[in-house]
Amino acid sequence: MKKLLFTMLCGLMFSVAGQAQTQDRLPFAKDKYYASAGLSNFDLNWSKNQSWHMDLNAKCGYLFEDDWMITGTLGYDWHKVGDDTFTLGAGLRYYIEQNGLYLGASANYVNSPIRKDFVPSAQCGYAFFLNRTVTIEPEVYYNLSTKDVTEYSGFGIRLGLGIYFE
Questions:
Q1: Which residues form the signal peptide (predicted)?
Q2: What is the structure's pLDDT at 20?
Q3: DSSP 3-state assignment of 114?
Q4: Alpha carbon distance 124, 141 (integer Å)
Q5: φ and ψ at residue 62, rounded to 5 degrees
Q6: What value does the mean pLDDT take over residues 49-64?
Q7: 33-165: CATH, from 3.10.310.40, 1.10.3660.10, 3.40.50.620, 2.40.160.20
Q8: Taking the model in full, what pTM does it have?
Q9: What is the Cβ-side half-sphere exposure of residue 160, based on CA atoms within 13 angstroms?
């Protein structure tokens, strides 16, 4: 009788655990949407253009396949010395499911009164989940200016707040 009760209890536990596993979707599952706002630079970037500036950007995305996201970006870069710039871009992001790291690449169009530039960018970041949908996303990126590599290319650090929803 004890063996039968133990077997039934184990079966019940496994079925409940299996049900919980199938109800929860993976954090980077197909058909999820993403919205994010981020701040970057804070004088922590490296480039020849050394004036203090701060970049505010908004990003939206769609996970078209598990761990693969297509993104769109709109940004504003405020410079203490020099002209402010607007950025419009599109990109692709791949998540490493086991640890929350992601790798990204994007193509951006930068517009200011003195500069119109195409800027490819590469990113590496981490999605730290605060709960099931909200993340804090520190990111390191490199922007490569096609107009003037020595003047406008450089590394930077971005801190974002992201929301994943269905």
A1: 1-22
A2: 41
A3: coil
A4: 6
A5: -140, 125
A6: 84
A7: 2.40.160.20
A8: 0.77
A9: 27
